[in-house]
């Protein structure tokens, strides 16, 4: 007994979870069964700490075809086209082995998308690191970006955007999130379920090795800290190794199988490997499954059954096919040089209970393990973990950064906040498929709604990923709501109507009550903002235990927003301002005299002041702004009307860095200076109060009139032109010098690593 | 009749649809050809598109050169048929010995996906016939191994025989003599690293690739 107690704990199960398993089975579980439960009931697979809270999110809308809980969320985009979207984290593997951690993150999420029958057409990568001047962070940045580039480019899916955030809280625990979008003819939509007793489970793709065993339990469901270099190295085999060429052939083979209607159901093998794919497909289909471990192609000899079942070897899929179609399935796979092996059979559930997952040594051989499939997939204990508002929060909220002295020169501080992320995205193929109308670097990425095999459409897609950990650390509810609001506004700046969001909730250790409070608040904030803006949440991922040495990261909910452009006939104006145009600030926010600097990049990044009470968010006003801006830009992307000049010739949302950074980015990206007046102080310059957009227009009078009748405040800031960035009384910078500083910031830090 | 252009697909190729779509938008008829095929005689021209043929295992093009279709490309080229290799296709043509030189890793050792300005250097190849020398075109590059290299003697021959097809206005990757594309002696086989098919739609930002693809389609139409 004592030996077994050690075993279940070593596998990551608590004593009470072990007892629950025994009660479910009506007998003592054997080693294999314990191993299956350990991975399936891990935090990463079961969401046991977060599921109770996630139920509070709105998930429905008429255009939602598939909501949360499946491999990806799917919406109806019209014209017979559906769009699948998902976001995930690959934080812990990337901390240990940045190249492979990030690479396999891309690979994993692509499989989630083509599992739905969709062709993956775009990836976005929000990344969070510590101080980029430190050598270890440079190693992480270099490795993660190279991993995404190496895998994504080769597998042939463009990486069209992302985010890059630096904060010391990520120094030991970088965050690597990845969002993937796919498209499919609506009628091809498939779900990951097994059905039809007697049907076969065919394992496609790579052979199974010992890589990634315990990835979900050892790595993803525990924090970092206190390890010696040897112990950290010892976790490295829990990181999988990716092969984009295998994945590319797997994608093409699976899409061809789906086109030919040769599969009943299909499921990717990701976290928890074969046990997850077999138990989830069986549970969803209400059937059982016999799995023959001896039939699983292996990369190495001497593997135990539990290793085969829980390995996270990459680039594998499980297809459910009828015996009659097996030969044709094998033919398609052979053409794409994809290995296929029958490893399972769909079985009838017993009369008195749910379908069983039986692990066998040969279909007629010894039964090595026998558990209800649904117990693995759905019966993990749900924890209502204790919540506690942080004790120091009131003190922090009262400590307003407004008391910080005004900068001697706002221009100097502005320069510190400017950096061009193109060092990152130049390494990503962001153009494949001839869809990328607006690539990385702008407010939202814009794609044509097109792919091989899709019906023709005039529509476009807009995508954005957003986060605001500095805000969420002060007020996770408002911070998350503001993040949702920012994403929706970014879509509007591209002329899109926001349709749905997905979320990746990166938080610390859920056993810390303050972290659970943050998580619960963030979910409520997301729910409020989504309800207020009419957006369904169609998928998500929760990454907990982002802590090191007992210190949790700032709460980092990442929101992926998806919008539709009704008629994409012209390029959106984007982040630019033609010389001679007038700059107008559109504001749907709460009218205040001295806007709060709390949570701003200026307060946090320049002054190191992390406290204060955040500026408010008015969802009604924000919604008016989104509708107004979305309509304006939609006119600018629709076919031109002869004789009518567009109201918008350039646009940028006001977000990180406030108005100062928004104006400066417009200048450096268009190579045009500006002259702005009427800004009363550094508060107005650097505050990140939400619900604001800067628009460049040649028809300022008409624009302000239209804004006012739409219930949106409009204020003329000044004009674009010249070779200086001038905010009267506050900023006077040379355009060329500012552009050089913006452009060279990252290369100066990171390129000295590579030989010139 | 629109000229028929074969677009060769190896496992791991990923720009085949883009090449097909761009060629068809310019009036050609384009068809995908699997790498196991050993006859291209029904086509008027052949494109080897970009991607990672056979995963770029060993090095780009090193395994693709053994695919059956390469023998057919050789025969097609020997008969004077127009052939263009784009990006990975250029790497394959060099490995197969249909073009001189090789593509090594970019100076700076990073993948580069960005617009570059090209200068047309030759007006007789199948990709540039009738295009004025010195014409400047904005076309994206998308590669890790695009740094063209060859020995001094080969470079001198390429220069003397007017076989440098396009050059970078600002060298992004360290290529010798800023070479972005070269041709064989007859001018009917061209390889280039930039992707003209990515610059054929005003929605995507540049239409300068049309100049090259139209010249190529015209070459296909006049193939004897």
List keywords for this structure.
heterodimer; A: 756 residues; alpha+beta; seven-stranded mixed sheet; 22% strand; B: 224 residues; alpha/beta; nine-stranded mixed sheet; two-stranded antiparallel sheet; 11 strands; globular
Structure description:
Chain A is an alpha+beta fold and 756 residues long. Helices cover 37% and strands 22% of the residues of chain A. The longest helix of chain A is centred in the N-terminal third of the chain and has 21 residues, at 135-155. The radius of gyration of chain A is 26 Å and the shape is globular. With 224 residues, chain B is an alpha/beta fold. Helix content of chain B is 23%, strand content 25%. Chain B is built from five helices and eleven strands, in the order E-H-E-E-H-E-H-E-E-E-E-H-E-E-E-H. Chain B has helices spanning 16-25, 68-78, 88-95, 152-160, 209-221; strands at 4-9, 29-34, 45-48, 83-86, 102-104, 112-120, 136-143, 147-149, 164-168, 179-183, 189-192. Chain B is globular, with a radius of gyration of 15 Å. The A-B interface holds A 149-150, 153-156, 243-246, 248-249, 252, 336-337, 425-434, 436-437, 448, 452, 568-571, 751, 754-756 and B 11-12, 14-15, 17-18, 21-22, 51-52, 54-57, 107-114, 140, 142, 144, 195, 197-198, 200-205.
